[in-house]
Amino acid sequence: MWSWVLHRITGATIFFFLFVHVLDTALVRVSPQAYNEVIETYKTPIVGLMEIGLVAAVLFHALNGIRVILIDFWQHGPRYQKQMLAVAVGIFLLVFIAAFGVLGMHMAERFL
Q: For residue 60, how many other CB atoms are within 10 A of its CB?
């Protein structure tokens, strides 16, 4: 049940990010100066942490989505859904730790 809840939350989070991204990118056509001002506000530590959260959301949503597809379309999917969740969480942790390291290094360069 928790993977279902997290899948919905991460999906809504990704949708919200894409909505904001389209809006702030559209500012280039309206006012390049306003666009530059908005982009400058993104260069803060809080937004850096939000980027890490976005990476986590996209990664979990993608891996859990593959698991959901396998459960729905593979005849043995429901039988192995717990094992597939364990594999998805394992892959998530491996990739997220690596991504966290890279993002952390970039954040340290920017803010220290």
A: 20
Which three-class secondary structure string do you get for the chain? CHHHHHHHHHHHHHHHHHHHHHHHHHHHHHCHHHHHHHHHHCCCHHHHHHHHHHHHHHHHHHHHHHHHHHHHHCCCCCCCHHHHHHHHHHHHHHHHHHHHHHHHHHHHHHHC
The reported pLDDT for the residue numbered 36 is 93
- Its pTM stands at 0.88
Q: Which CATH number fits domain 1-111: 1.20.120.340, 1.20.1300.10, 3.40.50.80, 3.10.110.10?
A: 1.20.1300.10
Walking along the chain (112 residues) 10 residues at a time, the average pLDDT comes out as 93 96 93 92 91 97 96 95 96 97 92 78
At residue 112, the pLDDT reads 77
Inter-CA distances, 23 with 12, 19, 30, 31, 89, Å: 17, 6, 11, 12, 33
